Amino acid sequence: MSIIRCPHCGTANRAGSNFCNSCGTELRAAPPAHAQEPAPATAGAEEAPPSAPATEEPSSPPHASPAEPEPPAPVGDQPWLRMEFGGESEVPPFEEEDESLHAEVARLAPGMQGLLAPVRIAVRNTDAEANPERMRPQPPHIPLEQMRLVRRHMESPPVLGGAERFWQMPDMGAFHTPWLYLALGLAILLPALLMPPWPHGAPTQWPGVEEAFLRVQGLPAQAHVTVYWAYDPATAGELDLAALPVVEHLLQRRARLSVVSLLPTGPATARRLIERARLEWQRSESLTAAAESTWRIPVQYLPGGAPMLALVAQNPAQVFAGAPPEPPDLAIVFGAQAEDVQHWLEQAAPLNRTPVIAVVGAGADPILRPYWNSGQLVGLVSGFDGAYSYQALLSERLPRLERSPALDSQLVLQDWGLIVFFGAIVLGNLAVVFRRRQEP
Amino acid sequence: MQSARPAPPNYLVIALAFAVSVVIVIDRMGVAPWLQPVTEMLYRWGIVLAAFGLLLGVLNVAWTHLRRVFLGESNWPYSIALIAALVVVLASGLFSPRGAESALTEWLFDSIIAPGQATLFALLAFFMVAAAYRYLRVGRNGGGWMLASALLLLTAQAPVSGVWMPPALAQFAAWMLDVPGMATLRGALMGSSIALALAAVRFMFMTK
Quick one: what percent of chain A has pLDDT higher than 90? Predict the structure, then answer.
């Protein structure tokens, strides 16, 4: 019986084994140990046809000739792979290996075992039983240079296929970062303190703003408007500016607002902005206390996430006490992110078919623009540009409402911030160009 | 040696989830208006369950930090600060007739919560400028496209550029968003929606 030594752990395995019974190392590439240990006549030799003619053509298979020894099978003797294999009785008995076979053999990585504990089929790992000390894992002997190479690879970012160039950019280090932060901080702080009138500009009026204005302007008196308030103080710096003219316009149109928010701090944010809008409106129209009391605006917090918006659309009376059960005339989403508007369009809008206006941050504009193009949104007001344009329309057509001075200063600050952004991008690319020139 | 058998799936929960999803789907399709009271009831239950989950979360946080304090684990003073803030906010709402609109709650919101949230969010600008400096470069694979797109959209959306930017550039920026950008986004949304539906089916029916 021939055996095959595992080149990894040295365990003797039955010839023909594909994997080591001890450590799982693949044995198909390893030659059987015929040369080392003479084995009794193999089953393959016994099964060679005895009456094969000696004068067979040279092209005939070599095993057909009884005079020639049968060449070893590629993976050893595997009778169970033959068509005529009759079962376990034909498997040659495994011979216990000789103790002399425990001689030291070369190993690929001494002391290292396989990742998975192998399932023992027939072979007892006599090595481990006879000499447990020898089988104890030893620390791998890795050359220092190889260790440094591994460490360098582990420290560098992963390299995608064929993208080595991606990570061969010149190392900018952390030296420039404080200067960038300083430049941005100064670009925000100095204009905020000095209030320069430039660069102001006139933002582009993107499609959707005028349509939103006209939709609110066309609301009948006492129209029921559902407001989904989806931003909190974190983004109020941008969203308050965009929401304020819209809420002022709604109050001016005597719309009856019902506000719902899924954010714990959403109702408090909504109450503050509505109060600001009410004060502006009161100042411009000398609103009487009696008239004011008729527009007590309910602000409701709903736990449970976006699916609960379906209840707001399906039966508003379940959420707002005293709200009419019929669908509202208009729905407005004040959201910091595009997902907020998408949630309303998916969960609520299909149920009540109410036209929807989105008032969102500038970052959400690109994602929501196609919803506006497809008609799912009847108006889109985004970022400072949208706020500026809506406020301009409001001041132009309703001269009683003045343009907020905070909006002008915000526009100047935003321009300075964008100048720093442009500068950072240009500097980063210039660094690449100059570094390349320095390279040999 | 016999391995431990996995716990059998909770068929009652799976059946409930399946029944609720079927009811909601049929109601959303609009073919059975008589199901609307049932779905409204389910939504209300969802709100109650979510509120209960919120309460459980608060109790869990409180218990976790109380234990840290009692056991003297690392950074236990922070746990005391958290529990103190929790008690103050809870008490200011519970023991005031105005509830969540009490004077103390409003002061906490205006003086601590709102400035804190705004400050943390404002830090994003610094990270963004550092990221723009490091990664929007022409030398990277695809970096030229990213740089061109970023410059185009920044230019188009900057308030100051509204003065001098030709309308054609604004229209080109809008086209970039509407056609190639949106085609990619819609494809990703469609793929994720199908994946979500398949994951739901797998969750309900393929427990192993």
Answer: 16
State the Cα–Cα distance between residues A109 and A23, nearest whole angstrom: 12
CB within 8 Å: A268 and B147: no
Tell me the chain A residues in contact with residue B117 when contact means C-beta distances shorter than 8 Å.
232-234, 265
ipTM: 0.79
A427: contact with B, CB 8 A cutoff: yes
How far apart CA A5 and CA A32 sit, in angstroms, is 7
Chain A residues 335-354 with CB within 8 Å of chain B:
350-351
Amino acid present at B118? A
Mean pLDDT of A233-259: 89
- Alpha-carbon gap, residue A225 to A246, rounded angstroms: 12
Structure tokens at A439: 């390279």
Do the Cβ atoms of A358 and A335 come closer than 8 Å? yes
A379-382 and A299-301 as β-strands: parallel, antiparallel, unpaired?
unpaired
How far, in Å, are A270, B103, B111, B112 from residue B107 at the CA level?
A: 16, 6, 6, 8
What average pLDDT does the segment A140-152 reach? 78
- Do A307 and B46 lie within an 8 Å CB cutoff? yes
Q: Are A256 and A222 in contact (CB under 8 A)?
A: yes
Q: Do B44 and A318 touch (CB under 8 A)?
A: yes
- Closest CA in chain B for residue A389: B159
Q: With an 8 Å Cβ cutoff, are B132 and A425 in contact? A: yes
A126 interfacial to chain B (CB closer than 8 Å) = no
CA distance A376 to A354: 10
Rg (CA), chain A: 40
- Inter-chain residue contact A366 with B126, CB threshold 8 Å: no
- Nearest by CB to residue B121, choosing from A234, A311, A350, is A234
Indicate whether A341 pLDDT > 90.
Answer: yes
- Out of A188, A315, A414, closest to residue B159 by CB: A414
Label residue A100 exposed, middle or buried (CB < 10 Å: 0-12, 13-18, 19+): exposed
Closest partner CB to A201 (pick from B156, B161, B174): B161
Among A207, A350, A429, select the one facing B137 at the smallest CB separation. Answer: A429
- Pairing state between β A12-14 and A356-360: unpaired
Query: Strand A330-335's sheet: what is its strand order?
Result: A299-301, A256-261, A224-230, A330-335, A356-360, A379-382
Q: pLDDT category, B63, cuts 50, 70, 90?
A: very high
What local confidence, expressed as pLDDT, does residue A49 receive? Answer: 43
- What would the two tokens of residue A215 be? 């939709």
Q: Do A425 and B49 touch (CB under 8 A)?
A: no
Q: How far is A266 from chain B (nearest CA, A)?
A: 11
Give the separation between CA B184 and CA A370, rounded to whole angstroms.
Answer: 12
Which of B143, B148, B142 lies closest to B169, judged by CA? B148
Residue range A83-107, pLDDT digits in tens: 666 665 666 655 555 554 444 444 4
How distant is the alpha carbon of residue A153 from its chain centre?
Answer: 24
Check B157 against A385: CB less than 8 A apart: yes
Q: At A437, which amino acid appears?
A: R
The pair of three-digit structure tokens given for residue A179, joined into one six-digit string: 């200067």
Average pLDDT over residues B1-29: 79
pLDDT of residue A41: 43
Residue A50 has a pLDDT of: 42
The reply to whether residue B118 touches residue A200, judged by beta carbons under 8 angstroms, is no
For chain B, the residue count is 208
